[in-house]
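Onboarding guide, step 5: your first structure request.
Type a short instruction followed by the sequence, for example:

Predict the 3D structure of this protein.
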Amino acid sequence: METITYKIFTAVAELPKSWDGVSHDNAFLQTPYLSVLEESAPTNMQCFYIGIFEKEELIGVALAQYLNLNKLESFGERDQCMKTYVRNFVFKNFASHALFLGNNMITGQNGYTFNTKIEVQKIGQILKQCAQEITSYFQKQKIKIHIVTFKDFYQEGASELKNAAFSEMYEFNTQPNMIFQLKSEWKTNDDYVAAFSKKYRDQYKRAHKKFDGIQTRELSLEDIVLMEDRIYQLYFYVAKNAPFNTFFLAKNHFSAFKKQCGNRFVLIGYFLNNELVGFYTLLLNGDTLETYFLGYDEHIQKEKMLYLNMLYSMTKFGIENQFKKIIFGRTALEIKSSIGAEPIRMSGFIYHRNPLINRYFDKIFPKLEPTLVWQQRHPFK
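The system replies with structure tokens like these:
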């Protein structure tokens, strides 16, 4: 560790010129996406960009995000029950200032990347030091960080971290990341549909029949700017009806994304009688297709099965453009499994800066998690 140092930046313009060379394998750590965050992060979020150096050479980059949950009007309105009220009270009063080492806006191991091999234990030590420095930064501003979270890690890396740098932290597993490994023999969407068992092929046909009358097209930057209010209205309906939220996107987020990332960011609009009734977004990340935020009109969604048709459309895009896998994230697990995605367990590590609360975190945290009951579907022959 004696030759490895780090520097924390608060502006993309300050980043070393070699930043994108180091982060070339992950679009979520490259400067175009970081510029999206800088231009249109949620109003309750502040981002920090971490450069990791060996001597004077940049060898790794990482992202940290501070969230002020006091600025949220709602944590999510779908589940109105006593457990939800208790959870919201606890978060508001004991966890309202949160620091994430990683990206709290997406699912997947997108918190850091290196261009050289480095032990997971060393990575953990660096991330902990960065967390301490950012915590001190806020302390000087009279802001007390309540909780520090390190997210998301696939199981091999999580096990190594648990045995070393993160041994004293509470390891948590929330909903799994739904990932669809696309088969190399699928060259067209017809190949994919032919692989379904009869039950799921019938589901596909039924969804497409319901979809009749909907026109779809990819929106340009000019289109997105023109329809920004409607896009946000559709996004916000879905977001506020999620079981739990720690942020809401800024209204200009999608236009900022298109402006910064160009053809690597795709927004597909769904129209009925020339009115935008739904949309979904994708980020092209090497050989991985990343699904991003979406939105829809509640009534049209039910009538036209918009959400299921969106999932089929994303899959078709992935197959026809020869992606190896699609990251579908950690919501709507059952319906995503019905189109072929499979659950991949991911871990995070968390600690509370109040020693008494932290001591009992293993008992407190599970009680705050929404109970999740779902059945994995197996759609292929």
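Each response can be followed by summary notes, for example: The chain has two domains: 4-174+345-368, 178-343.
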